[in-house]
Structures
1.
Amino acid sequence: MNFLITGAAGFLGAALANQLARQGHQVRGLDDLSTGNPNALSPDVLFTRGDVNDRPKLWTLLQEVDCVYHLAARVSVPESILYPREYNAVNVGGTVSLMEAMRDVGVRRVVFISSGAVYGDQEDQPLSVDKTPHPQSPYAVSKLAAEYYVRTIGDLWGIESVSLRVFNAYGPGQRLPPSHPPVIPNFLRQAVRGGTLVVHDQGIQTRDYVFVDDVVRAMIAAATAPDISHSIINICSGTETSIRELVRLVKEITDSRSEVIYNQQTDPGVSRMCADLSEAKEKLGYQPQIMLKEGLRLTLERDPIFHREAPAQPVTR
Ligand code: NAD
């Protein structure tokens, strides 16, 4: 098949692009490299640097494409609180531009990568797709708005659409930005280097962590699964893990004696996140294969960032 992946040089985009290319598909990737790394892509992926709002570029890239994976986005919740206009322009505006270009060229299916963040704080767990979303950040609002645009424009122009609400994905290749790094690579790096693990609040908040290979399996299934147009599907492990438990596992697999600090001043985010897997099982034949402890071990083993030397300490006289 012929695929276009937006956000192809990002963490999930590159993992998907490389796997599709390994399977012998024709894969084009688009990314503006605002955070992505083109070196993560296999030479078999035809990469173009560009903005997802650039429709002339999209028209060219969409020629003869069967299915589009839309991952290009700004992805930091705290950053979205500071810059909501930018998040709206890229995550919502970019989605509308892409859908317009798909309408113009004619593409059979779009798989939109949404987020479990759209649910917000909910009493009842696990989170099933029929729960009314309570987005609590501009990032979450932008993903929910994009879901509606994908579905509505898709309906109007006969483009099959499916939204995958991915929960906390982790694995080798995940970026570690200096501010607000994702919790798993941050804890792993700190533990490997003997640094302190800083936990927000008391660490009793829970998340549903899903390994990148499982996410890629689900994304690939969504390109060809029959009768899934209109679907919203949770992509998750279906297992709820507290930050305290994550700390315990990270320390165990790294054999680390790192100190753990509980910072009561920081916002722990939503209190619980555990997703319901039923739709993914039924519609994609999806079953998570890598549970957290094994996923942490694979991340540590496969990602070179955990094997580099810690920066030298400044010499004090
Ligand atoms: P990422 O930041 O590694 O990937 C996003 C990519 O989009 C980057 O390579 C970036 O350069 C690119 N991009 C940003 N703005 C662009 C623009 N205007 N035009 C073209 N490219 C642009 O993040 P990721 O974790 O790989 O996330 C990929 C997608 O999955 C995002 O849509 C994100 O919302 C979604 N998602 C991720 C997770 C997760 O845990 N990683 C969870 C839920 C949903």
2.
Amino acid sequence: LATLFLDRIEASDLNAFLHVDRELTLAQAKAADARLAGNDAGPLTGIPIAHKDIFVTRGWRTTAGSKMLENYVSPFDATVVEQFNAAGTVTLGKLNCDEFAMGSGNENSHYGPVKNPWDKTAVPGGSSGGSAAAVAARLAPAATATDTGGSIRQPASLCGVTGIKPTYGSVSRFGMIAFASSLDQGGPIAKTAEDCGLLLNAMTGFDERDSTSMQRPRENFNCALNNTLQGLRIGVPKEFFGAGLAADVEQAVRAALAEFEKLGATLVDISLPKTELSIPVYYVIAPAEASSNLSRFDGVRYGHRAADYKDLADMYKKSRAEGFGDEVKRRILVGSYVLSHGYYDAYYLQAQKIRRLIAQDFQSALEGDNRQCDVIMGPVAPTVAWDLGDKTDDPVANYLADIFTLSTSLAGLPGMSIPCGFGQGEKNGKRPVGLQIIGKYFDEARLLNVAHQFQ
Ligand code: GLN
């Protein structure tokens, strides 16, 4: 199996993989074979998997898509990687992504953009563009990814595969290179909901090395896959279907909703009035946290160090100027600004207050005696994948494309993307559309059930 996928990866021109190492992979495959022969195997033993290059991996380089970490090899494994290794998966390599996971099109990677396998003139989405493209092109049966404001769901949508961002706190962030710590969450991208459930079974769980890790009993996420959808109430937020939503995306999403009605579900009109505010709120909070997290890259301990410098301050400045790309610098500037004296109250604190209101919108729809629905559905992204190069000079155009994924992240809720059809805009191939399914806290098993019944 590992050889089959390695051969495909070698023959591919998508730029989905940043590091491949046949020897390392085949050594792991041999170990898995031994476990299979010795009756010491679990459901994932011997299954090839690829990791987003933001999870640190012993023996492999981990760059986070940045020049800053071009030659970085971690001395330890991220918890997620450790868990998969223990389950016996075989690492195929490390996947391209936007630099420090900042982006929506994978065009902010220092190592070049990833191509969308459905149409190589289109972006794969981001920041987990390598993960989604690799699974869509069958270069890997499954991949890890991270989602801070949509980076699992949006590339899954744009590449026509399935991805789930679990409830914040479910997957350990230890060894997952930090972007915005109160939002970052790992999760799987795979072909189906069932596969995602198997992967979640391996990658979730309490980790004392992550202070926001949740202490909960182990769960089998695939326990409810075959439950009927009879009586399921699906909330359809009007704010997810307003101006800005492309007609072809709306059509595919509405057709999917009609399918769910046929499966016995009822559609309920709901309102999440603060949706629009999620863009300004996220683009204050995420850069603020990023500016703090990225201060560790100083050229002293690890990462890029400038060749020539006058003194220590000059070394910091030059190393950071050379090591970070434009989008990362933009966020450090914005983040430092909103956290600075005199602006903290005006921007950062305000954003935190609105974040709470955004979470309350979801709470009143999904929880309590007056709840209106069991899950929420809508589009993942306002359009199908755009052309490579179309939005590279326009950061705000990239930010606006995150409108339907940011609020779920700000609230810490689980969200999922499943393929639901194709839109127009094709040049050389079809461009997929994803359906987003959002649930209450820790309701992943239900989301997977709902998705599985559709798939
Ligand atoms: N597109 C969003 C951003 O650039 C989300 C990225 C992510 O989820 N990592 O911040």
